[in-house]
Specification:
Protein name: Putative NADH dehydrogenase/NAD(P)H nitroreductase CEW83_03785
CATH class: Alpha Beta
Number of helices: 9
CATH superfamily: NADH Oxidase
Keywords: Flavoprotein, FMN, NAD, NADP, Oxidoreductase
GO molecular function: oxidoreductase activity
Cofactor: FMN
CATH architecture: 3-Layer(aba) Sandwich
Distance between the termini: 29 Å
Strand content: 5-15%
Strand order of the largest sheet: 1-2-4-3
Helix content: 40-55%
Order of helices and strands: HHEHHEHHHEHEH
Radius of gyration: 18 Å
Shape: globular
EC number: 1.-.-.-
Number of domains: 1
């Protein structure tokens, strides 16, 4: 561990020059890279180390055709072109893995009979893990195109029927085509978005 900030070039890659991509180069993403991506993502913190995020890496033409049934029309072309579309999901039975993931204290009782807490915790933490996924992908040289324009219930039916997994958001992954980028939109100023208390 170090208390020194990352170099400007690393910060540029992760934040300042990284963009949301909607067009993709014809370059594959190997399963080895996807394994690396998951390995890095899995190290981010979650409540009780519960790690509720589950991923489906949709790479095949058949898988993409199924997924496109649930997409808004504006998201179809870019998803078909992307080498991979990650379905970022959460497992409503994530708490069953606590003996492995959090062996120092059995916290399954918090969740076993509390569906509202389970849903809230699974969704919040899979959202955080999805953000880790984006940053890990950028660190590995991939570009990302996260999306929420889809029918969640249809994705759940198509990919998670009969399971305890539920979709959260989608993220196209690959090597973006920089020539198709839009100008970067502004961000809120610190004075607008932040307060000291």
């Amino acid at each position: 561990m170090t208390d020194q900030p990352l170099t400007d070039s690393v910060l540029d890659r992760l934040f300042l020059e990284a963009r949301t991509h909607n067009a993709w180069q014809d370059r594959p993403v190997s399963e080895d890279v996807l394994r690396q991506l998951y390995s890095l993502t899995s190290m981010g913190p979650t409540s009780f180390n519960g790690s509720p995020m589950r991923l489906v890496f949709v790479c095949s033409d058949e898988g993409k055709a199924r997924l496109c049934e649930a997409l808004l029309p504006s998201n179809v072309a870019k998803t078909m072109q992307a080498p991979v579309c990650a379905i970022v999901a959460h497992d409503m039975s994530f708490w069953e893995a606590f003996p492995t993931l959090s062996p120092h204290k059995d916290v399954r009782g918090y969740f076993r009979d509390n569906a509202a807490l389970t849903e809230e915790t699974a969704f919040r933490n899979s959202s955080m893990q999805g953000a880790y996924l984006i940053m890990a992908a950028r660190a590995l040289g991939l570009d990302c195109g996260p999306m929420s324009g889809f029918d969640r219930s249809r994705v759940d039916e198509l990919f998670f029927g009969g399971t305890s997994w539920r979709s959260n958001f989608l993220c196209n992954l690959g090597y973006g085509d920089p020539s198709a980028l839009y100008p970067r939109n502004p961000r809120l100023a610190y004075e607008t978005a932040c307060r000291l208390a």
